[in-house]
From TrEMBL:
It comes from Porphyromonas macacae. Residues 150-284 form the AAA+ ATPase domain. The keyword Hydrolase does not apply. This is Chromosomal replication initiator protein DnaA. GO terms for cellular component: cytoplasm; plasma membrane.
Length: 454
């Protein structure tokens, strides 16, 4: 084993011990970013982002560090820090503390920079379907040419568990493969906030800003976490402007669209609104089937097609929920291999994750869903306007009302601005025919139908 590999192994053992001595959030914020760069005569040198970072470690975690270094290096172990933000200081510190050490060049430092990326969250492991095709295509384009207009910044939003983190990390991994000279950093808004608060406490705000302004590709997950954090937003605004000015790539994820980031500084929201913005929707039925079949194949467990289909049809909200439900079934299959997993048992497992009682489908519910999916004002549905988008939405209401309620054509027409039964039947047939030839329209209708059954 090489000296470098031996050092990495030793430090990983230290991290394992530190994880047991701290809570998960503290570990991810203060220990995961650290890189071991040298070990000589019991003296361990760690690279940390800034000087304030090392000061906080020494003031808050001195006992834990002393204990862990004593266990893994020896009772006379000593600790030194170098800083990522200033290569010259880094070089001097290394030479001063460890005279026989070999300082890294700037390019070597970039290659060993801890980007906080999960190797499993790549494009190759990202399941694609119509609901996320555009988001993935833009992500791959961003990774191919980071910082290139007009795809900088890139803003991905959607509900929890639909793949925002996976896609953003995949960008980082691809950039590191295609452009190893670039410094990539993935950070959650919570980590950014915690680091900023500590930097302010130790009067190291300038170092904090400087560190982030050195990044070539900055990925910030769950940016909505900065809502209400005024001073942190101001710091992020400085970082954002600097990186954008230098054509450095910025990738942001959120559970809200930019227009719904209320509580965030208007000037920052304005910058974010200038991003290429793509929504990640809940997984459609095709994607859910694909994920389930792939996961079942990987497990080696055989499940009936009807079981897979039942899960796909009923667990609709997000991929995390889908995989969790399947994991429960697969675990049972492994511990009770002689027990057949049938629909009755599957229903019992699925009911623990989602409600299998479907809400009543009413005219009011249909109108609410359609106006939301078609992005039209609810008041226009009953209006006399012939605007194309409103007419399409009105016809969709007619189609769904006839298909999913017991209302007569006359009753449906009456609730849609006193239209007659012939008009309703025409609207129904128009939608039925259009769904056969217009893929985008069919997908919109499928989304509306799925929403009705949630």
């Amino acid at each position: 084993m090489s000296k470098r590999n031996s050092l990495e192994t030793l430090w990983q053992e230290c991290l394992t011990s530190l994880r047991l001595l701290t809570d998960e959030k503290s570990y991810e914020t203060w220990f995961a970013p650290i890189e071991a760069v040298n070990l000589q005569n019991g003296a361990l040198t760690l690279r940390v982002p800034t000087e304030y970072f090392s000061q906080y470690l020494e003031s808050r975690y001195a006992t834990e560090l002393s204990r862990v270094l004593g266990e893994h290096i020896g009772p006379h172990a000593s600790l030194y820090f170098t800083y990522t933000t200033n290569p010259e200081v880094d070089k001097k510190a290394t030479e001063k503390n460890l005279p026989t050490g070999s300082p890294q060049t700037k390019e070597e430092e970039k290659k060993t920079f801890n980007s906080h990326l999960n190797e499993k969250l790549s494009f190759e492991t990202f399941y694609e379907s119509d609901c996320n095709h555009v988001a993935r295509a833009v992500a791959e384009a961003v990774a191919a040419k980071p910082g290139n207009a007009p795809m900088n910044p890139y803003f991905i939003y959607g509900p929890s568990g639909v793949g925002k983190t996976h896609l953003s990390q995949a960008i980082g991994l691809r950039v590191k493969t295609l452009h190893p000279e670039l410094r990539v950093l993935y950070v959650s808004s919570q980590e950014f906030e915690a680091q900023y608060v500590t930097s302010s406490r130790f009067h190291e705000r300038t170092d904090f800003i400087h560190f982030y302004q050195q990044i070539d590709v900055l990925i910030v997950d769950d940016i909505q976490g900065l809502i209400g954090k005024v001073k942190t937003q101001q710091a992020f605004f400085e970082v954002f402007n600097h990186l954008k000015l230098l054509n450095k790539q910025i990738v942001l994820t959120s559970d809200k669209a930019p227009i719904h980031l209320s509580g965030m500084e208007e000037r920052l929201v304005s910058r974010i609104k200038g991003s290429v913005t793509v929504a990640l929707d809940k997984p459609d039925i095709d994607l859910r089937r694909k994920i389930l079949k792939e996961k079942v194949a990987e497990s080696g467990v055989k499940l009936k097609d009807e079981v897979i289909e039942f899960i796909a049809e009923n667990v609709q909200n997000n991929v995390r929920e889908l995989e969790g439900t399947l994991c429960s079934l697969l675990t049972y299959a492994l511990i009770a291999p002689d027990k057949e997993i049938d629909l009755t048992f599957t229903r019992k497992i699925v009911s623990r994750a989602v409600s299998l009682e479907k809400p009543e489908i009413t005219m009011e519910r249909i109108q609410d869903v359609v106006t939301d999916v078609f992005h039209v004002d609810a008041g226009l549905i009953k209006d006399k306007t012939r605007r194309q988008d409103v007419v399409a939405a009105r016809h969709a209401v007619m189609y769904l009302a006839k298909s999913y309620t017991n209302q007569s054509l006359n009753a449906i027409g009456e609730m849609l601005g006193r239209r007659n039964h012939a008009t309703v039947l025409h609207g129904y047939n128009t939608v039925k025919d259009r769904m056969k030839v217009d893929q985008n329209f069919r997908q919109t209708m499928e989304k509306a139908i799925e929403r009705l059954h949630v």
